[in-house]
């Protein structure tokens, strides 16, 4: 996978994540949902465009992730979180994810960002079409583009193309190469006992390698409860600066082809003194999830007349 591509959209919104898990030193076996084997069998070795991925690609990737994560306590927590949400094998086998993502800041109707997006999980390419608006934009793994013009949508295509995917893809995206995990210890949120794990990134990973996420996972279920994050995207913030932390509560999980994905991500200011969420600032909802759809290569590339964005300067 192209880590730089993944992070150019995903690190755009930095997050910190905490995961709650036991201390069993050996990660459990991967438990694929019943439909995973069928999906893998239907995938072909000739993966033109984007769509389901052959088992010959998936198995080595899963094995490498499992070995990498099993080397630390933080990694073991993340692995068990991934298992609790359906497992890495069906996530990678699907190859693509599509969904509607409605990000609505409270008291700021003009700041609403509502798009239907299609994402290639293996090459970090994305295509967005604005709901009730004219904008279409995407990222082809190297370049981002927007139409009908540079100002058709805010924020920039390079920032937003993969950012929603990174939110909805938790905790699976924490198994990606280039992610550094750190154990932060126990915490209680909304009367739920959790553990926290901080995810940061190797230098040079993506457009915003200073981003971080802190995930909270429930001790009793290993499932994702919440996530803290910052934003440090170049052009939005000076080098070394970032937005204040926010906390995103994950809720209303849906079964999507055997995987458990959140449909609400309500976001709150975070009080650094009390280490607790403060006022709610954004309503965020995801819907119309589908995994494993096939897309032609052309949906990710800039169409004629689209504005192609310059690469941010670090």
Q: Would you identify the regions where 5 or more consecutive residues have pLDDT less than 50?
A: 1-45
User: What coarse outline follows from CA principal-axis ratios?
Assistant: globular
CATH topology: outer membrane lipoprotein receptor (LolB), chain A
Tell me the β content.
25-35%
Strand-and-helix sequence, N→C?
Answer: HEHHHHEEEEEHHEEEEEEEEEE
Rg from C-alpha positions? 18 Å
On the 0 to 100 scale, the average pLDDT is: 83
Number of strands: 16
If helices are DSSP runs of H or I spanning 4 or more residues, what is the number of helices?
7
Structural class: alpha+beta
Question: Could you say what the CATH architecture is?
Answer: Clam
Helix content: 10-25%
What's the CATH C level? Mainly Beta
Largest sheet: 14 strands, antiparallel
The fourth-level CATH homologous superfamily is: Lipoprotein localisation LolA/LolB/LppX
- The number of domains: 1
Rounded to the nearest angstrom, the distance between the terminal CA atoms is: 22 Å
């Amino acid at each position: 996978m192209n880590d730089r591509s993944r992070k150019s959209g995903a690190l755009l919104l930095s997050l910190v994540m905490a995961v709650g898990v036991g201390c069993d030193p050996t990660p459990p076996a991967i438990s694929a949902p019943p439909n995973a084997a069928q999906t893998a069998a239907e995938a072909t070795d000739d993966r033109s465009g984007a769509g389901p991925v052959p088992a010959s690609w998936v198995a080595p990737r899963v094995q490498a992730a499992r070995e990498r994560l099993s080397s630390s306590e933080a990694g073991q927590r993340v692995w068990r979180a991934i298992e609790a949400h359906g497992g890495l094998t069906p996530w990678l086998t699907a190859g693509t994810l599509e969904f509607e993502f409605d990000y609505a800041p409270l008291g700021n109707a003009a700041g609403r960002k509502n798009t239907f997006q299609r994402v290639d999980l293996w090459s970090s390419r994305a295509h967005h079409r604005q709901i009730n608006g004219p904008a279409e934009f995407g990222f082809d793994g190297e370049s981002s583009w927007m139409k009908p013009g540079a100002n058709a949508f805010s924020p920039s295509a390079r920032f937003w193309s993969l950012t929603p995917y990174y939110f909805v893809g938790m905790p699976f995206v924490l198994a990606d190469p280039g992610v550094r995990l750190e154990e932060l210890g126990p915490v209680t949120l909304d009367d739920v006992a959790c553990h926290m794990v901080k995810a940061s990134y190797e230098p040079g990973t993506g457009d915003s390698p200073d981003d971080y996420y802190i995930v909270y996972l429930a001790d009793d279920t290993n499932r994702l409860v919440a996530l803290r994050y910052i934003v440090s995207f170049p052009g939005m913030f000076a080098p070394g600066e970032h937005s204040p932390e926010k906390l995103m509560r994950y809720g209303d999980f849906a079964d999507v082809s055997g995987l458990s994905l959140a449909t609400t991500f309500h976001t709150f200011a975070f009080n650094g003194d009390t280490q607790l969420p403060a006022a709610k600032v954004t309503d965020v909802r995801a819907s119309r999830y589908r995994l494993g759809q096939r897309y032609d290569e052309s949906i990710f590339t800039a169409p004629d007349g689209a504005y192609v964005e310059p690469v941010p300067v670090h």
